[in-house]
Amino acid sequence: MSSDDSTRPPRGQSRRSELKQAYKEKPPAMGVFAIRNRANGKVLVGSSLNLPGALNRARFELSTGIHRLYPALQEDWGRHGADSFSFEELDVLAPPEEPGVDLKEELRVLEALWLERLQPYGEAGYNTPPA
């Protein structure tokens, strides 16, 4: 074995390091999500620059009873239980090919389309109706 071989990581470990680095460099999915209450048909529509993170945060906040933005959603979670809810990605926004695109604005437009389509207000959902 040459001295060069002893400093080189094993082949499997090198590949694993490459995959970890690629994962870290990949931006998270952006888009629009829905939290559906299958017990009563209500839905919450939202959007995020980090879709998996937003869904994980919402699930965590609801399960620990600290979801403050939508008290009716939290109340229904307590009443119906976690198994009555689904967490869905409605639309994923592709990363822009050119720099300078306002991703937040793109998400607002995409979310507005889903809000118009689903009308998750009043008895149908948890979102606040537009003014």
Automatic annotation (TrEMBL):
Q: Where is the composition biased (Basic and acidic residues)?
A: 15-25
Q: Which InterPro entries match?
A: GIY-YIG_endonuc_sf
CDD domains according to UniProt: GIY-YIG_LuxR_like
Region annotation (Disordered) maps to 1-25
What is the name of this protein?
Answer: GIY-YIG nuclease family protein
Native source species: Stigmatella ashevillensis
Q: What is the lineage of its organism?
A: Bacteria, Pseudomonadati, Myxococcota, Myxococcia, Myxococcales
